[in-house]
Amino acid sequence: MYYPYFIAYMAVGFILSLVVFFWALNTGQFKDQQRARFIPLDSEQPAKPAVASRFARLQAIALFALVCICLASSVAVITFALIKAAR
């Protein structure tokens, strides 16, 4: 049976989602929730978009790479399971 592959796949996905969630907590993504609900009602335009720092760009690249790796592993697990089931 190929259930262990899917259980491992789900466990890895759960662990990665926890890692990303705690990363978001540590970097302050959920701070100032009281202000967030009024942002769509704000009529003034922002003066200038903020320029991302080098570290922020590296984080974005790392997250993009992580997403690509996860998608590739998803395809690999599903392909492996289908090949095993066909035999």
Give structural notes.
The protein is mostly helical. The protein has one domain (1-27, 53-87). The protein is 70% helix and 0% strand. It has 3 helices and no strands. The longest helix has 33 residues, at 54-86. The radius of gyration is 20 Å and the shape is elongated. 0% of the residues are buried.
Beta-strand portion reads under 5%
Mean pLDDT: 82
Instruction: Count every beta strand, where a strand is a DSSP E run of 2 or more residues.
Output: 0
Helices, by number, come to 3
Helix content: over 70%
Number of domains: 1
The helix/strand series, from N terminus to C terminus, equals: HHH
- Which structural class matches the secondary elements? mainly alpha
Low-confidence stretches at least 5 residues in length (pLDDT < 50)?
Answer: none
Largest sheet: none
Query: What gyration radius follows from the Cα positions, in whole Å?
Result: 20 Å
Distance between the termini: 11 Å
Gross geometry = elongated
Walk me through the topology.
Layout: H1 3-26, H2 33-36, H3 54-86
Brief sketch in words of this structure:
With 87 residues, the protein is an all-alpha fold. It is built from three helices and no strands.
Q: Keywords, please?
A:
about 90 residues; mainly alpha; 3 helices; elongated
